[in-house]
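ok so for the tutorial part 2 we go from a plain amino acid sequence to predicted structure tokens. step 1 is just haveing the sequence, like this:
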Amino acid sequence: MSGDGEHEAYALSRSKDYVYVPSNGAYFNMLDQHAESTEGDVKLPYVVLGSPGSGKSALLANWVQRRKLTKHRDEFLFQHYVGSSPKSKTLFNLLSRLESQIRIQFNLRDMEVPTSENRLRWALKRFLSSAAKKMYPVRIVIVLDGVDKLTGETAAADTMHWMPSELPPGVRFILSTDEYDKYEPASAVPSDDSG
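step 2 — the prediction. this is what the tokens look like for a chain of 195 residues:
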């Protein structure tokens, strides 16, 4: 099964077999509002935060399925579910899939998709900017589920270091991540018993 097919199948399984609380469409409306773009608008990534098993993947999968039916015809909608397969957990796989699909969708024939994780990280902003220049106003929605579980070749890959610090107008990121306790238990702090 191709990389794209794995993510489609995973999304379908989450949209049918898993439960999330729809909350009268409020969550879908928030995601729709973030995904919508007007000429020249820039938005920071939208983060869906919750405890493990709270239904973040199901929410995003159901929203993507609905979005496919209602999206603007020129909208590029990309989904990646970290954990849908062993290779989906690597930053290399995510960025390679994303940049390859952007290259095809926006006919960026003069741009080559890098073959190393480091070069893929640096190329992401260039791919997004080139796509934005190719179609104005551009409509790009990138849904990444489980970004906290991405692994990479370097320590920086396990953080959001790969995300461009500035996004072109019309480019939207929707991310999900697990919520963890902010503080370690008091017993984890070593005491000074030197007396």
